[in-house]
Amino acid sequence: VTITNSLVTNGTSVGVRFITSHNATITNNSLQSIDL
Questions:
Q1: Which of these, 1, 17, 23, 32, has the minimum number of CB atoms within 10 Å of its CB?
Q2: Is the pTM value of this prediction over 0.85?
Q3: pLDDT tens-digit series, residues 7-31
């Protein structure tokens, strides 16, 4: 499953943990793609 173009609020703890744990690619403070 791939989720794309989901907005990530810059500086939130939950967002950072989610991004880090899932190795998502971040560009311009937006979540471009994530493989679950």
A1: 1
A2: no
A3: 554 444 455 555 555 555 554 445 5
